[in-house]
Amino acid sequence: MARRRKTNSDGGVNLDSLMDALTNVVAVLILVLVLVQADVSKKVVEFMEGLKPATPEQVTNAGKRLASLQTESQRLEQLLSQEAPSPREIEAEKRQLALLEKDREQRQDLLAELDQLKKLAAQTKVRRDTEAQKTATIQQEIARLESLLDQTPVLKVEPTVVGIPASRPIPKDAKIYYALVIHDRVHFIDPFTPLELFEREFKRHKTKFPSKRIKQKGTDRFIYEPQPIVDHFQNFDFRNSRNQKHTLLAWPTSTRLTIQISPDLKSGGTSLEELKQGPSQFSTIVGRLRLKSDAVLIFWVHPNSFNTYLLARRLTDQAKLAAGWEVRGASNYNISIPEIEIRRQQQPDPPKDEGNTRKPPNIRTKID
């Protein structure tokens, strides 16, 4: 039998178990330390074995780096050995720094202005080059036209004599029709039929158009909104058989609607060749107008079509139709509708002050 250890029957503490535990812990720590030391030694050996030998260039660079570090260390030691600056010297250095800072800000402003000047100079150069290119192109075109002009023979054209017979006023009850003579074509304009068709259609749908009623003595005044009326007549059939376009317009500064008649300047109307060949659309129209005792035909003659006008006027005189003419460059005819007032969308510009300048008298159209 094992010998029983004596216990302190007086209540003392047994420290044998504590000593055993401490001994075991110390043994484990020693074992771990031995293992870590062995592993570190192994890693050091592997690291040293894995190192590549330094090249001559690396050795040279390392020497240079070491020399520079030694020089810098000596400089720092000399600075540390010097005496500290006095408060007066520190204040002087601060003032110098403030001046340098102010000078730096001024120089930055100058640099910013310099950048703007450079950008402006670049833009000016681009514009100059563009204008120079345009000038060169224009000069080349002028040279080409001059060479063509030198090669073009001089044409001898016999002057056309246009006589101006005695004129007389248009009768007050006359119905005036128009003929636009432009680009060697005659375009007959009937200003009455489109106006009659418009008034008939407007009366039929009058209640649909928004308006403002102003009460006054006699007949009340109605001011219509222009856009609904223009939209309604956008595709309206004005029964045109002469290849002309009718457009209802509402000018922004006007209080009246306008029907604009625009003929087809390229293929509409009657050409000069058709007038020369014999019966034409224009001669047929003149034949119908001569049956109306109150009909008058006014020619609007473009400066480029006097020969066409002379031939058309000869046919008009042969039909004994009262006629007159004006020199105008218009390519369309506008019919104002005075009976319908519309809301003005934009105020017109104030009239210019022409001082004491006298305007030429308004010469009314006459027949001859």
Brief descriptors of the model:
single chain, 368 residues, alpha/beta, 5-stranded mixed β-sheet, 8 helices, elongated
Structure summarized in a few sentences:
The chain is built from eight helices and twelve strands. The mean pLDDT is about 85.
Fraction of residues in helices?
40-55%
Number of strands: 12
Q: Would you tell me the structural class of the helices and strands?
A: alpha/beta
Low-confidence stretches: none
The main sheet orders its strands as 8-3-2-9-10
| Radius of gyration of CA atoms, rounded to a whole number | 54 Å
Largest sheet: 5 strands, mixed
Q: Report the β-strand fraction as a percent range.
A: 15-25%
The secondary-structure element order is: HHHEEEHEEHEEEHHEHEEE
What would the principal axes of the Cα set say about the shape? elongated
Q: Give the termini separation.
A: 167 Å
How many individual helices?
8
- Overall residue-averaged pLDDT value: 83
What does the model show?
- This protein is of the alpha/beta class.
- It contains eight helices and twelve strands.
- The strands form three sheets. Strands 8-3-2-9-10 form a five-stranded mixed sheet.
- β2 and β3 form a beta hairpin.
- The chain starts with 15 loop residues before the first helix and ends with a strand.
